[in-house]
Amino acid sequence: MTDGWNWRQPQTPPAPTPPASQGSPWWSDALSDPWRDPYSPSAVVIPSAPVGTGPAPEPVTDPAAPKPPMTRILMICLVTALLAGGLGGTLGYVFAVRNGVGGGTQLGGTPLAAPSAAQRAPESSAGVVAKVLPSVVTVRVTGAIGSGFVISADGYAITNDHVVEGSDGTMSVLFSDGSTADAKLVGRDPESDIAVIKISRTNLTPIQFGDSDSIAIGDPVFAFGSPFALNNTVTQGIVSSLDRTLQQSESGGPTRYYAAIQTDAAVNQGNSGGPLVDAAGRVIGVNSVIRSVGNTEEGAGNIGLAFAIPFNQARRLAEDIIDTGKARRTVIGAEVATSGSTSSSSAAGARLRSVEPAGPAAVAGLKSGDVITKLGGHPLDDGVDLIAMVRKYAPGATVPIEYRRGTTTQTASVTLAADAN
After folding, report:
1. Which SUPFAM superfamilies did the record assign (predicted)?
2. Active-site positions?
């Protein structure tokens, strides 16, 4: 018996001779009954349901039909994820190696090469700093720390008078490379706040000189020094104002006058004597004074108001000190009131209390009682302004002035001179 899946047509045996009919109805269809003849074909027939009767038959899925595309989609997602992960890992490794991140060893045990020093264009901020730093020193005096900068290869350096004030003439300096050297005081000018020291080392790198008369408000500047003993500190700002006149005095100490370069570069205690340089790395000023909201010197800190002595003035004074041991003081040959400006703006100016006979002011035609309102085009509020501005110029300089005598305003030129002391 077979279910028909591998059925073949059998050879037909000779038909048997039918027995004689006995007249029994049970055997009447025996010859056509397949279950009685094992050699006759058989099949199972399932009748179809009548049309329009009963529910529709459930569709049968052919197992041999193509599968839905889900497998292909999953394979594509898997391959994409593997590629993305591999690419991301490769890029991450490359960036890590370039930036020096990681253990420092490649696969196979080959050490990574040490990263080379960062290279910057000479005109960039980093390039300017790299050029200036070898010329900057930290000045160590007993009980105080200030800053300074080298002006000659044989060891001369400029700093502030108030940095070396109180020293016994000996001190040491610290260079940007960490080396140190002894230094001694050459000379000082307390009223201009400039001092010169000599470092006991040669073949130094002098700073490049600039022209403080050629700068303008808004020019970018860098301030170098050791604020709060933080060596090799550099800050950046702009020129905020020019010829800012200041008077500084301490109990029992000298009265100092400045016609300063004002800057918003951060300057703090310890920056004093350090260089203020332009965008090309040329020194244009000596950082000297700050304004602060602190009530004590120890509590003073940067608020964006710093002042530097113009380098043209500092250079002239330093050359005098190196050549003669002291600086020449520029004077106008008159005594002025320094207690502050007058009550009304129309009367602002430096009133002359007295005029020295044959002095620069007298030669220019000025008299006692005259009020100088402008010197070199710079407006004057009081006597402090006049003294500070006069000392900015070198002895022998001829400067235009404007003055008021009574109700009239007049002009003249005065040739400044050096103090006889």
Report:
1. PDZ domain-like, Trypsin-like serine proteases
2. 162, 193, 272
